[in-house]
Amino acid sequence: MKWEPRVQEILNTFAAQHPDWVADDTGPRMRLNTLFVEQVVFEFGSTYGMKSAGSGRPLSTETLARQDPGGRLIGWAWENKHNGEVDQFPESEDITGQIFSAVTPVNHLGAPKQPGGIVPGNSPISDGSVEKKLDLILANQSAIAERLAKIESQLARQEGLLAQPTNQDGLSALLKQADDNNERRYLDLVAHFDHLPIR
Asked: Are 104 and 41 in contact (CB under 8 A)?
């Protein structure tokens, strides 16, 4: 199992910054591995770290380790040629039985955390809940699209009515009818007040 492209990018970045550290396993390569692992832990989470071969043994200078949910310990050794070059997409090894060492996350590269907490080397496992949520979102989008279409249709009809040329004769007739109605109301009120008794 190979790690994610972003993990390789992190390693290559630090190796390019400190090329003389890669081949020197007396201490500088440990500094390089520490920078590398701290960045991976920052971006991908605390299941990543370093490892030692056993209790009381020194930490590996060229290995990224990961604790799997099933209890296995996985490791990627990234400097196997001993020629000053880092490996590109090394295969993982099951190193269960060796000692995992947690690492404090540090963002040396100013990078964002990886979205969704995707674990390098693992494909996301779905229990169907993601698909159900996606179906619900799509259904809601369809309903919203239908409602928007109805609103747009109503607006188009209203705009069409407003855009029609005004019938001047019809408007004059409506205004005359409103005046007639107002005059009738006025006369009714006057007649009503004429019949009220005066105290």
From this structure: yes
Q: What is the pLDDT of residue 47?
A: 94
Asked if residues 17 and 90 have their Cβ atoms less than 8 Å apart, the reply is no
The CA distance from 89 to 123, in Å, is: 16
8 A C-beta contact, residue 28 and residue 21 = yes
HSE toward the beta carbon, residue 183, CA cutoff 13 A? 6
pLDDT digits (tens, 9 = 90+) for 118-138: 444 443 444 455 666 666 777
The residue type found at 30 is M
Q: Where do the domains of the chain lie?
A: 5-117
- Please provide the DSSP assignment of 137-175 as one string: HHHHHHHHHHHHHHHHHHHHHHHHHHHSPP-HHHHHHHH
Name which of 8-12, 87-91, 102-106, 140-144 the model is least confident about: 140-144
Query: Do the beta carbons of residue 32 and residue 15 sit within 8 Å?
Result: yes
pLDDT digits over 33-75, tens only?
999 999 999 999 999 999 999 888 999 989 999 999 888 999 9
* Tokens 């928007």 found at: 148
Residue 191, token pair as written in the block = 């007649």
Q: Are 92 and 76 in contact (CB under 8 A)?
A: yes
Q: Which amino acid is at 111?
A: A
- Which candidate, 141, 140, 65, places its Cα nearest to that of 100? 65
Classify 130 as helix, strand or coil. helix
